[in-house]
TrEMBL record:
One MF term in the entry's GO annotations: beta-ketoacyl-acyl-carrier-protein synthase III activity
Keywords (A to Z) from UniProt: Acyltransferase, Cytoplasm, Fatty acid biosynthesis, Fatty acid metabolism, Lipid biosynthesis, Lipid metabolism, Multifunctional enzyme, Transferase
Domain notes: The last Arg residue of the ACP-binding site is essential for the weak association between ACP/AcpP and FabH.
Compartment(s): Cytoplasm
Annotated metabolic or biological route of this protein: Lipid metabolism; fatty acid biosynthesis
Primary enzyme class: transferase
Any single Gene Ontology cellular-component annotation: cytoplasm
Record note on quaternary structure: Homodimer.
HAMAP family, sorted: FabH
UniProt keyword Transferase present: yes
Protein name (database record): Beta-ketoacyl-[acyl-carrier-protein] synthase III
Length: 332
């Protein structure tokens, strides 16, 4: 097996942090609001509850807390950050970027900060861009955040979406390393999938003051079955691509961290890859789908299992459609 290239400069993850709101929305809460049941939700999705951000807070507040968690645990000085990349589909506001707001709340007034929207694949996209910045040798400390306040866009009365989504934020710190780090990423998108998963209202096509946007276009809509089918196929294909071009088999991968959309999707991808039992990590049961935050939060909550030198493969699928997989050696 090949696990890296000699003399290559890698971007290594040297810190990870997370934040999940205190408020919970359980299946029994949803039973009181719409025609559903705890039994159906657990069987069809594996989700028991989700976290919901307080109404007077926004995506940036969760991201700030995740970054503060990372800085405290790994003894990092936030003033060392050269670039702050924020993957989110739920920015605090259309302009400026949520990354700017986060930087300001952290007291960073001289940092390159910007947002990236690739829905549930956002963290993978931003991680690869962050790694590329390190590989140019022009950036030494890059923060990659995945954060979403998706509950704002979920119609609480729509049982096809209210069962799935919750809020949260996760973050990793990237630094140069000659020993190992992010090894590869395969990222793709196909915009013809946009009709199957979207939030139409609030953009320049359907501004929020338009009557139809206020009426029904402000909420997340999806064709669940179509999304499910594409998610399993695309995530599995992306993982095979990454393993093939790195000369690896599934036995070389210590941990698979799939986007947490539905436990049945996670299980189906695991079966397609034939990954040994217990090596596909999951934390969907108590968080649901937190969009760009699922992958860093899943690593953050499973840190005790991941050992230095382990090979970790990430994979995600989301609106766009957008999807991909990436591979790294855990260096902490
Ligand atoms: N409670 C109870 N019954 C329900 C519910 C519910 N919440 N939702 C649907 N049903 C019923 C349906 O009416 C249907 O009844 P019928 O057989 O009498 O017609 C039956 O249950 C089956 O419905 P399906 O829609 O076929 O259920 P499915 O197994 O496909 O599960 C789900 C639906 C959970 C939405 C699933 O399709 C899914 O998870 N899809 C992927 C969605 C996803 O991952 N989206 C996010 C992508 S990431 C991003 O970028 C945002």
């Amino acid at each position: 097996m090949s696990v890296g290239v000699p003399n290559r400069l890698y971007a290594a993850i040297t810190g990870i942090g997370g934040y999940i709101p205190a408020n919970t929305r359980s299946n029994s809460d949803l039973e009181k609001i719409c025609d559903t049941s705890d039994e159906w939700i657990v069987k069809r999705t594996g989700i028991k509850e989700r976290r919901i951000l307080e109404e007077d807070l926004a995506t940036s507040d969760m991201a700030v807390r995740a970054i503060e968690d990372l800085a405290a645990k790994y003894n990092k000085n936030l003033h060392d950050i050269d670039a702050l990349l924020v993957a989110t589909s739920t920015p605090d506001m259309p302009m400026p970027a949520t990354a700017n707001i986060i930087a300001d709340k952290l007291g960073l007034d001289n940092v390159w900060a910007f947002d990236m929207n690739a829905a549930c694949s956002g963290f993978l996209y931003a991680l690869d861009l962050g790694a590329s910045l390190i590989e140019t040798r022009r950036y030494k400390n890059v923060l990659v955040v995945g954060a979403d306040n998706i509950s704002t866009y979920v119609d609480i009365h729509d049982r096809s979406t209210n069962i799935l989504f919750g809020d949260g934020a996760g973050v990793v710190w990237l630094e140069p390393s000659t020993e190992g780090g992010i090894m590869d990423a395969y990222l793709r998108s196909n915009g013809s999938g946009r009709s199957f998963l979207n939030i139409e209202g609030g953009g320049s096509l359907y501004p929020m003051d338009a009557e139809d946007a206020m009426a029904d276009k402000r909420f997340l809509k999806q064709d669940g079955k179509t999304v499910f089918k594409h998610a399993v196929q695309s995530m599995s294909d992306a993982c095979f691509q990454v393993m093939d071009r790195n000369g690896l088999t599934i036995n070389d991968i210590n941990w698979l961290v799939p986007h947490q959309a539905n436990q049945r999707i996670i299980d189906a991808v695991g079966r397609a890859l034939d990954i040994p039992e217990g090596r596909a990590l999951s934390n969907i049961e108590y968080l649901g789908n937190t969009i760009a935050a699922t992958i860093p939060l899943c690593i953050w909550q499973n840190l005790k299992q991941i050992k230095t030198g382990d090979l970790v493969m990430l994979t995600a699928f989301g609106a766009g459609f957008s999807w991909g997989a990436s591979l790294f050696k855990w260096m902490i």
